[in-house]
């Protein structure tokens, strides 16, 4: 009979042979999920025998991971900014850079509670995390997306964290109303010509959340010209962009009448975030972190 250690060893070798990055960590996560424990707890149970009833679903999960299905989809959860969120194929898997964007936003001088619009919300992790970080219970938060499937996932995650935001199914700003102290957007920015180069894992994300036209900028060209009308004077816009799109997106923001347009790097040194404000009284606004 196989033990936990036997399973970890053979599964790691299998995933390594399938070209899965960090195969040991992946296998530990899969086994821990199946056994209902943490990865650390596995180390105290290496000699524990596994029944055939436990091995059967493990084999299926291992096969799916070897075929490139994302680990987050297999587990059904992802940790983002220290909290767990439901994660599946209805929306983009949140990336580590998006956590950096949220961290920078929380350092801005924003009212509490802030009127927040999270455009292209996907699973809702940005808007929900910001609402919790700003001490709001969700009433001042609008989560908008063109995808009804993504909004259903965002709704589940809001309920998971005890929030009650407003959900709007909208093609960018077409059905959005009101003005906001902060608009965040993680819009599709991958160019269609890059589709053949994407990893197997990324290919499981919805195309509508990934691709921004032939050069990746189509959605920004549609979104930015009208965004100022939805910001309060002095209100902030915060975007995540592709690593090679900084000059184009900042130029679009400036042509759209936004002030204080700034490009910020991620922790890897790539120009990943754009911040801007609607014209207003900015004399006391601190510099971006």
Question: Please, could you describe this protein's structure?
Answer:
- This protein has 289 residues and is of the alpha/beta class.
- The protein has two domains: 4-67; 90-277, Vaccinia Virus protein VP39 (Rossmann fold, 3-Layer(aba) Sandwich).
- It is built from eleven helices and nine strands.
- It has helices at residues 4-17, 23-35, 39-42, 52-66, 71-75, 96-105, 125-133, 148-160, 207-210, 218-227, 246-255; strands at 77-80, 83-86, 116-119, 141-145, 166-169, 180-185, 231-240, 259-265, 271-277.
- The strands form two sheets. A seven-stranded mixed beta sheet has the order 5-4-3-6-7-9-8, sandwiched between helices. Strands 1-2 form a two-stranded antiparallel ribbon.
Q: How many structural domains? A: 2
Roughly what fraction of the amino acids lie in strands? 15-25%
Overall form: elongated
The CATH topology of the largest domain turns out to be Rossmann fold
Count of DSSP helices? 11
CATH architecture grouping of the largest domain: 3-Layer(aba) Sandwich
Radius of gyration: 21 Å
Kindly name the structural category.
alpha/beta
Q: Averaged pLDDT, please?
A: 93
CATH superfamily of the largest domain: Vaccinia Virus protein VP39
Question: What is the N-to-C order of secondary-structure elements (H for helix, E for strand)?
Answer: HHHHHEEHEHEHEEHHEHEE
Enumerate the strands of the largest sheet in spatial order, edge to edge or round the barrel. Answer: 5-4-3-6-7-9-8
Percent of residues in helices comes to 25-40%
Number of strands: 9
Please give the largest β-sheet: 7 strands, mixed
| CATH classification, class level of the largest domain | Alpha Beta
Give the termini distance in whole angstroms: 55 Å
Poorly predicted spans: 282-289
């Amino acid at each position: 009979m196989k033990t936990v250690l036997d399973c970890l060893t053979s599964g790691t070798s299998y995933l390594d042979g399938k070209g899965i990055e960090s195969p040991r960590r992946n296998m530990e996560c899969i086994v821990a999920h199946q056994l209902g424990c943490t990865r650390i707890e596995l180390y105290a149970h290496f000699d524990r025998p596994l029944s055939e009833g436990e091995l059967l679903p493990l084999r299926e999960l291992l096969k799916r991971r070897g075929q490139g299905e994302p680990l987050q989809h297999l587990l059904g959860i992802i940790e983002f900014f220290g909290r767990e969120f439901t994660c599946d194929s209805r929306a983009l898997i949140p990336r580590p850079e998006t956590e950096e964007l949220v961290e920078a936003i929380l350092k801005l001088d924003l009212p509490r509670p802030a009127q927040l619009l999270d455009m292209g919300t996907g699973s809702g992790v940005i808007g929900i995390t910001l609402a919790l970080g700003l001490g709001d219970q969700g009433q001042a938060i609008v989560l908008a997306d063109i995808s009804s499937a993504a909004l259903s996932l965002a709704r589940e995650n809001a309920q998971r964290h005890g929030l009650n935001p407003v959900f709007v199914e909208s093609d960018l700003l077409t059905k959005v109303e009101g003005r906001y102290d902060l608009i965040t957007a993680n819009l599709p920015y991958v160019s269609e010509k890059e589709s053949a180069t994407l990893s197997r894992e990324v290919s499981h994300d919805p195309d509508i959340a990934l691709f921004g036209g032939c050069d990746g900028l189509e959605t920004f060209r549609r979104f930015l010209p009208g965004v100022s009308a939805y910001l309060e004077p002095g209100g902030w816009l915060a975007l995540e962009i592709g690593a090679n799109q900084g000059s184009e997106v900042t130029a679009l923001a400036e042509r759209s009448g936004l002030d204080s347009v700034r490009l910020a790097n991620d922790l890897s040194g790539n120009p990943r975030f754009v911040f801007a404000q609607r014209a207003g009284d900015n004399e006391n606004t601190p510099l971006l972190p």
